[in-house]
Amino acid sequence: MEIEIPNVDLPTVETGIPLLPDGLYDVKVESASVEPSKDGSSQILKLKYSLEQNATSVGGNEVNPGFPVFDRVSLKVTEKYNPARRLAGIMDCFIGQRSPKLNPEELIGKSGSIRLRIRRDEQYGDSNEVKAYEPKK
Predict the structure, then answer these.
(1) What's this model's pTM, rounded to 2 decimal places?
(2) Of 4, 59, 81, 102, whose CB neighbour count within 10 A is largest?
(3) Of all residues in the chain, what percent carry a pLDDT higher than 70?
(4) Nearest to 46 by CA among 75, 80, 18, 79
(5) How many CB atoms are closer than 10 A to CB 17?
(6) Residue 88, SS3?
(7) Which burial class, exposed, middle or buried, applies to 82 when counting CB atoms under 10 A from its CB (0-12, 13-18, 19+)?
(8) 39-55: average pLDDT
(9) Whose CA is closest to 121, among 109, 113, 131, 129?
(10) Per-residue CA distances from 86 to 55, 77, 131 (Å)
């Protein structure tokens, strides 16, 4: 038995996780923890945010407050990367001050704004990535 799908442009229907357009979004930190990296050579700060506003996905669908956004910050210093800048941005955004040490639990329940961009990836598909942190205005 065939089913006729009425008035739907199938290539534009979102079937996965909604992709948010590049922009600034108000969020609340739902969880924050430091965990070992997959290879065990360093640590990762894992953050889960929830949207505090309505948004529209790139596919035109409504995304409700509470939608989760994930962020992973490598804590490993390399020749080309130092996490201090990102950590300072996180502290400025969610705590309002910088400290030489960060307790991830201090972030939980705090609100701020994150700047998202679309990360293009042929292997895994497009996704959102956090590019900056800004105190909520």
Answers:
(1) 0.84
(2) 102
(3) 89
(4) 75
(5) 15
(6) helix
(7) exposed
(8) 95
(9) 129
(10) 25, 12, 9
Neighbours of 73 (CB within 10 A): 16
Quote the strand ranges of 17-110, DSSP E. Answer: 23-36, 43-51, 55-56, 62-63, 68-74
Report the 10 Å Cβ neighbour count for 71: 20
For CA atoms 94, 34, 114, 31, the dihedral sign is negative
> What whole-number distance in Å separates Cα of residue 47 and Cα of residue 24?
17
Token pair of 99, please? 């400290």
pLDDT, the chain, mean: 89
β-strands 55-56, 62-63: how paired? antiparallel
Query: What's the whole-number mean pLDDT along residues 79-105?
Result: 92
